[in-house]
């Protein structure tokens, strides 16, 4: 036998490899954000900050242009009155847009419910309280109808509510006979329908109950969306519906409840609109759908869903009111007021797209 000696191993192969490897600790380059990047992140984390800043700048600018009369208590309270109904509709619209949907029928639901309330209370002798409750139930039913078509029939929200807008509008024309219910008839038979038209005079300001109602609606809905599990589910669906379903959220049920609540809020707006206008007209608030969407978009709520605060819609409605009042006081023609609001919408959407790049 040959005396062959095997080489002596001083360690395992991986140990010898490790001895020859680089011993430095891994280092990662830290990206330094520019001031603009930091602003972008701040606005992404606080979406309501944009409309608040725009509202403050608008107030200062129009105060300088229109003079001291712009900041008079009467003028500021008048702005609140003018945006109260659209503000309530914007609150309903906000909930739906947060779910990445849209509702083009909110104004039609509101006017339809006001016609139903008026017909019952003025022409049929039904007590005003019962007529109002019927209107509330009708608004919730109309919203549920939208929700069922979207969740069960799987129709896109845009097409669904575009169709139901036509249906509800045709119904209100049929029920009203295309005729208005005069304010004198309401005063005689159902004055309670005008409850939210009552005013409180305070230090030169004339604050209507409808303006206070708008603020209350926003506060209640803000609490529901930010402090309850239901509200967290609404945001989750808007951010990613499939992920929400995988996490156990019953998305269809939540969506139906959102549309029902939005319909109910539209019915509340219907009652308030009677006091605001002083009569019931089937032609009133014809552009309410677009005006409510305008307030929501300017208020920083993303049209893509899942981001934004409902309080932003309140600030958005106030911004529109401030612009209209300020431009009117400055002697600007109505045509150019509409022109300015159009640019506001475009700029608001552009800012939203820029802010969303943080999460991209």
UniProtKB/TrEMBL annotation:
InterPro entries hit by this protein: ABC_transp_permease
Transmembrane segments: 48-66, 78-98, 104-123, 130-149, 155-175, 203-225, 254-274, 295-322, 334-355
Domain of life according to the entry: Bacteria
Location within or outside the cell: Cell membrane
A GO term for molecular function: transmembrane transporter activity
Presence of keyword Chloroplast: no
Membrane topology label: Multi-pass membrane protein
Alphabetically ordered keywords of this record: Cell membrane, Membrane, Transmembrane, Transmembrane helix
Coiled-coil features, chain-numbered ranges: none
Protein name as it appears in the record: Mannose ABC transporter membrane protein /fructose ABC transporter membrane protein /ribose ABC transporter membrane protein
Organism: Aliiruegeria haliotis
